[in-house]
Amino acid sequence: MELQTETGCATSLEIRGPSTRAVHGGAERHNPYHAVVPPIVQTATYAFRDTADLIAFQEARQWGAAGGRVDYGRYGNPTVAALEARVAALEGAEAAAAFSSGMAAVTAILFASLRSGAHLIVTEDAYRRTRQFVLQFLRRFGVEATVVPIGDFEALEAAIRPNTRLIFTETPTNPYLRVMDLERLAEIARRRRIRTVVDATFATPINLRPLDYGIDLVIHSATKYLSGHNDVMAGVVAGSADLIAGLREMQAMIGGILDPHAAYLVLRGLKTLALRVHRQNENGMRVAEFLSAHPRIRRVWYPGLPSHPDHAVARRLMRGFGGVVTFEVAADREGTSRFIDALHIPYIAPSLGGVESLIEQPALMSYYEMDPEERSAIGITDNLVRLSLGIEDPDDLLADLEQALARLP
Ligand code: PLP
């Protein structure tokens, strides 16, 4: 990435730091009205000066030379484009596309990559709605899927068929924070000419950049860390210019575009991404260590702990271990709820990645409609807790956990 000088000439300064990229990455130095911040361009359609201007635009578009100019809001927006450029800079990607939610991004990729008769591989522990879309919805359209456990590369290779088009994984996963060995995954997929997609919502580009390891596309629910304030829904995908162009074609048909106000909020949130994630990494590590040593906690999952099954992979691939800690309380369902209810700082809420800490008992939140046997078959026990740490001071968070745990018998 290069900075532009006042005169518009590229300087030789290469921006490497994630925080500088989060503030300046992909930015136009010159905004309308000399504004430092890109404006919110609130328009659904775009006008032409006259018919000659329209025809020149149509000709240029036909040859892919419209220079980002569009004629209608579903095909692009300058505020959204500013966000896309920032995300591409953060991920080290050629291009990025923004969507109205993380799920709009996930489904657009799957629609764009698969057709009837195709097969895909998805790893266990993927986001519940992604799994549902792949295993139930896509099946109705003749797309078959195989689920393989993260880290089992023999099972992954064995699952590959001649018609396998895509491998979809998440890292770290929810709720067990499993970390995929992306180098190994990319090597296998390249050899077999299969596209790889990684949902790195839990990682953020501050902790892990999947494209650096040879992955084709990275997805984020920008609702989480990228926007970071629990106040907006968005999704982004980054990758090669070719793949992103294909995705835009799909988006032009199925919709799911990001509103310019929402894009502005994500762009604003992104500026502090590195600062926030560094604090969240610190909070994650401090809380994971505290809980591991606590007699009223049965088990802790955090990739930064040597006890985590993927600690070695996480140390090799990640620059930080994230702000989510999952643990089992030494109590039954009601005791675990009493502990949660006794906390003062985290809100009881789904989602993660924002400045406010959020806590949930997955059995009573995302998995409530399942019966206990179904839940325990996928490892969701009644005493399981997922804590998404915000940017509060670690000592306050630890004191809050200590006082709530002290109430347990
Ligand atoms: N991917 C992951 C890992 C998630 O946790 C979520 C939502 O929780 C999504 C995708 C979907 O994102 P959104 O809620 O923005 O549609």
From TrEMBL:
| Residue positions where N6-(pyridoxal phosphate)lysine is found in the record | K224
Kindly list the GO molecular function terms attached to this UniProt entry: cystathionine gamma-synthase activity; homocysteine desulfhydrase activity; methionine gamma-lyase activity; pyridoxal phosphate binding
CDD domains found in the cross-reference section: CGS_like
Q: In the Enzyme Commission scheme, what number(s) does this protein have?
A: 4.4.1.2
Q: Which cofactor does it need?
A: pyridoxal 5'-phosphate
Q: Which reaction does it catalyse?
A: L-methionine + H2O = methanethiol + 2-oxobutanoate + NH4(+); L-homocysteine + H2O = 2-oxobutanoate + hydrogen sulfide + NH4(+) + H(+)
User: InterPro entries, alphabetically?
Assistant: CGS1/2, Cys/Met-Metab_PyrdxlP-dep_enz, Cys_met_metab_PP, PyrdxlP-dep_Trfase, PyrdxlP-dep_Trfase_major, PyrdxlP-dep_Trfase_small
**Alphabetical UniProt keywords:** Pyridoxal phosphate
Record carries keyword Membrane = no
One GO BP annotation is:
transsulfuration
Entries under Gene3D superfamilies matching the protein: Aspartate Aminotransferase, domain 1, Type I PLP-dependent aspartate aminotransferase-like (Major domain)
Family as reported in the entry's similarity comment: Belongs to the trans-sulfuration enzymes family.
| PANTHER family in the record | CYSTATHIONINE GAMMA-SYNTHASE (PTHR43379), CYSTATHIONINE GAMMA-SYNTHASE 1, CHLOROPLASTIC-RELATED (PTHR43379:SF1)
Q: What is this protein called?
A: homocysteine desulfhydrase
